Amino acid sequence: MELRHLRYFVAVAEERHFGRAAVRLHVTQSTLSTQVQALEKEVGGPLFRRTSRRVELTEAGELMLTHARVTLAQADHTVQVARRSIEGKTGLVRIGFSGVAVLQGVLTADMHAFRRTHPGTELCLTEIPPAEQVKAVREGTLDVGYCPRLGLGDTDGLTLRSRAATTLSVALRQDHELAAAATISVAELARWDLVVYATEDEEAQVLAQLGPAVGHPRSRVHPVTGTLGALAFAAAGVGVAVVPTSTTRIDLPDLTYRPLDDASGPDLLVVSRSDELSGAVRAFLDRSWG
Q: What family is this protein classified in (predicted)?
């Protein structure tokens, strides 16, 4: 027995006429009669009482009609569930992010737009350093990463898309000598202890991106892995912190910000698996990449 046999049977049972049922199903009447006869042979007896003008259900046919409708409805529901998953309308998207993705408004904008069109899909967020995001996406414990293009490590099998450019600012204590300036150049940073938003492994990349001026001797470079750590060092006067300009949204006691006028930060990336199969994840990526 196949689902089409049940669909043919239900159509005849509801129309009480083979001709009308054949038109409804877009098949020939002879095809329909053959399929119903095959079904009756399989169940072992007649499902209809046939007359010259119409057909009536037998007792077995009445019972089968009730259950056939349930079976067909469940089959249709099963198809819809699979289709919704493929279309990304259900499921889970696990997102790793760096703080800059939130401060720039990029991650929240992408989430808001996605939720409007895919309200049945669940989003799970984890704040995690960039290199760990890449590893987690590659290993399958995260689906998408929002991170700066910095110290990412092995990206084989991954797709990296630039989501937003990043400008840089300097965070420093309000009574610092440089706070009197409207803007600060990279060369002016060379005289001061420097706080950089990077791990120790990423420190050299950050300094190289800022340019040769920061290679001048200084007392110390303080690499930090979190936004608040960088701002805490700056507010305490330990050093001047080079941070994404979006960080200036954070207001802390004794802290001020000045634009860094001759350097730019690493792009904010969206990281995903190149062979992603999840409909929900693909739908989220389509939304975030526009």
A: Belongs to the LysR transcriptional regulatory family.
